[in-house]
């Protein structure tokens, strides 16, 4: 099973994340994922760099580790044709090292830029448009596409990699899992393992079957939160930054990080550990990975909120990877 490192633009400046990506590759991580937000999940002390220029710099800084977004929503601010162009450019410059992950997004990425925040069924329909547009543009042909929301008018990618950049779809419910089964090379989820096994896998397999695809060829990926420190209390304190993501649902039309932070601060400290694995024992990270491997995942990407990221990466290199 592969293990990825998540470079969180919300929590660190882009230049710092470049250092983290280099450390992750040196430590033996298989991939580096990065967030693609306009606003972060917190206000105080937060950052929010742009994913795509950062990916170009990070791929150039490193040698072989795979990189991509996790996730990019094609809801309003991104036309899927542009996303295909971004991915194709990185794929042609860094063969075999790029991926693109599409999802239905969050309001924080759309409303600040003046776009509407539609309900999930509408966002799912736009996601389907995006997947179809991506696949058609990757053929290298001129493409006309009259979609539900997104369209193409004799569009063509003139710069393409020799092999298509893998397209992943992320989601935590059955409808997004079905889209992944129909169109994607991989499925990323944050859902609990039990939900994944009992609800999402059947939906993914159904989507693949309806599209005449082999569901076993769809890579299974999970994002898991981890906060590690020598002292448990320090690891728990470091989770506070992400409590906003616990307090606001993905479907809510909340886009102001000040409001998100205010809601997060209402979550009692005793509940912060529900965000993910909070530990002072790195062997628990190894056990977490083993549970996911047993559940059939092909990759786990670790979003570390550890107070010392360099220390977390070093511990992973010594005792896990």
Automatic annotation (TrEMBL):
UniProt-recorded Gene Ontology molecular function terms:
oxidoreductase activity, acting on paired donors, with incorporation or reduction of molecular oxygen
Under what name is this protein listed?
Glucose-6-phosphate dehydrogenase (Coenzyme-F420)
Where in the numbering of this chain does the Luciferase-like domain appear?
1-274
Highest taxon of source: Archaea
* Pfam annotation, one family: Bac_luciferase
**What does the UniProt keyword field contain?**
Oxidoreductase
Q: Which gene encodes it?
A: fgd
Listed PANTHER family: 5,10-METHYLENETETRAHYDROMETHANOPTERIN REDUCTASE (PTHR43244:SF1), PTHR43244
- Oxidoreductase as a keyword? yes
């Amino acid at each position: 099973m592969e293990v990825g490192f998540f470079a969180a633009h919300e929590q660190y400046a882009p230049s710092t994340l470049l250092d983290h990506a280099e450390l992750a590759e040196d430590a033996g991580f298989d991939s580096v994922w990065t967030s693609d937000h306009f606003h972060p999940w917190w206000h105080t002390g937060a950052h929010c760099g742009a994913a795509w220029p950062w990916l170009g710099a990070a791929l150039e800084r490193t040698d072989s580790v795979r990189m991509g977004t996790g996730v990019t929503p094609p809801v309003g601010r991104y036309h899927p044709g542009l996303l295909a162009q971004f991915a194709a450019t990185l794929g042609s410059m860094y063969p075999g090292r790029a991926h693109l992950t599409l999802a239905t997004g969050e309001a924080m990425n759309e409303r600040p830029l003046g776009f509407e925040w539609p309900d999930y069924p509408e966002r799912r329909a736009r996601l389907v448009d995006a997947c179809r547009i991506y696949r058609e543009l990757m053929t290298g042909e001129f493409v006309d596409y009259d979609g539900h929301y997104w369209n193409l008018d004799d569009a063509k990618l003139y710069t393409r990699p020799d092999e298509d950049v893998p397209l992943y779809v992320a989601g935590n419910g059955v409808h997004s899992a079905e889209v992944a089964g129909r169109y994607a090379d991989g499925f990323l989820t944050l859902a609990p393992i039990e939900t994944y096994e009992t609800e999402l896998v059947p939906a993914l397999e159904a989507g693949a079957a309806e599209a005449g695809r082999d569901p076993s060829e769809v890579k299974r990926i999970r994002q898991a939160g981890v906060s590690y420190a020598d002292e448990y209390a320090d690891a728990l304190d470091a989770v506070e930054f992400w409590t906003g993501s616990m307090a606001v649902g993905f479907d809510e039309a909340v886009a102001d990080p000040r409001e998100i932070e205010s809601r997060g601060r209402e979550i009692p400290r005793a509940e912060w550990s529900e965000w993910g694995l909070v530990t002072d024992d790195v062997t628990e990270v190894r056990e977490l990975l083993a549970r996911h491997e047993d559940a059939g995942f092909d990759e786990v990407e670790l979003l570390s909120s550890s107070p010392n990221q360099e220390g977390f990466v070093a511990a992973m290199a010594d005792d896990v990877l």
